[in-house]
UniProtKB/TrEMBL annotation:
The gene is aroE. It comes from Acidocella aminolytica 101 = DSM 11237. This is Shikimate dehydrogenase (NADP(+)). Keywords: Amino-acid biosynthesis, Aromatic amino acid biosynthesis, NADP, Oxidoreductase. It comes from the Bacteria. CDD domains: NAD_bind_Shikimate_DH (cd01065). NADP(+) binds at residues 84, 132-136, 155-160, 219, 242.
Length: 274
């Protein structure tokens, strides 16, 4: 058994609610693997309390926290410094408490790209089609552009697609109704919408026109295999599942708080998927 001493390093995940979060499993698995004297705990914080509780955690000796729904924008607002991804996304998912104040980063885009690479998919191998124009699409689009990818955004509400493309120049927009007919022009398809998640309707996306070798990524990880990924697999395309993104986005926070860069591997995947 791993015991926690009086000088243990502490981190956690803040959300409301937070009970569903898989982050404690990820970080505590890494802490155990590396024999680190530390703990990573769930921290349910009401939205009204977030601005006062976070600085209090810093004062209580926490090294930092992850931030999930609904606090990602509020977290941005309390930082003295944010990284480029957080600035472009307007949202923070990782807070690091430093002697100079609270610093924020957004590791979602990093996690997405690292997961692609993990699956042998090159981010800029060809044009990329992103389904959806919410916060997730924004972070992923920015990270892909940094890798040199040419991105096109398609979204049910065209105004949101246009707004996101304007924020990520020279991104293009494709009308939502053309997403299936135009699919052959792309090397990578990414679902960032909520469609296909448990309790949500399936994503309407016929893959008949896919070019051979199309990589199909979903950021949803419940279920582990969405209908979109099952369809991609059945057609011999390259599916990239969403749980890997969650594992990879956790790496920068862990290394900042605990001083070790941890591994994302099959064993971790199985522990977190269970
Ligand atoms: P997040 O910040 O997590 O990306 P979001 O801002 O709520 O979440 O975005 C959800 C995405 O799923 C949006 O692109 C949304 O499309 P709209 O901008 O048209 O709302 C998309 N989405 C949700 N339900 C949808 C549906 N039934 N059909 C098509 N797109 C849908």
């Amino acid at each position: 058994m791993r015991l926690i001493s009086g000088s243990a390093r502490l981190a956690g995940v803040t959300g409301w609610p937070v009970a569903h979060s898989r982050s404690p499993r990820i970080h505590n698995t890494w802490l155990a693997r590396h024999g680190i004297d530390g703990a990573y705990v769930p921290l349910p914080i009401r939205p009204d309390d977030f601005p006062s509780v976070i600085p209090a955690l810093a004062k209580a000796g926490f090294a930092g926290v992850n931030v999930t729904i609904p606090h990602k924008e509020a977290a941005f607002a309390i930082c003295v410094k944010v990284d480029d991804f957080a600035r472009r996304a307007g949202a923070v998912n990782t807070l690091i408490f430093t002697p100079h104040g609270i610093e924020g980063s957004n590791t979602d885009g990093y996690g997405f790209v690292a997961n692609l690479r993990h699956h042998g998919v090159k981010p800029a191998a060809g044009p990329v089609l992103i389904l959806g124009a919410g916060g997730a699409a924004r972070g992923i689009g920015a990270a892909l552009q940094d890798e040199g990818a040419e991105i096109t955004i398609t979204n049910r509400t065209p105004e949101r697609a246009a707004a996101l493309a304007a924020a990520l120049p020279p991104a293009k927009v494709l009308p939502w109704e053309q997403r299936e007919d135009a699919l052959g022009d792309y090397a990578l398809l990414i679902n960032t919408t909520s469609l296909g998640m448990v309790h949500e309707p399936p994503l309407p996306m016929n893959l008949d026109r896919a070019a051979p070798g199309l990589a199909v990524a979903d950021i949803i990880f419940a279920p582990l295999e969405t209908q979109l990924l099952a369809d991609a697999k059945a057609r011999g395309l390259k599916p990239v599942e969403g749980l890997g993104m969650l594992l990879h986005q956790a790496v920068p926070g862990f290394s900042a708080w605990f001083g070790v860069t941890p591994e994302v591997d099959e064993a971790l995947y199985r522990i977190v998927a269970a």
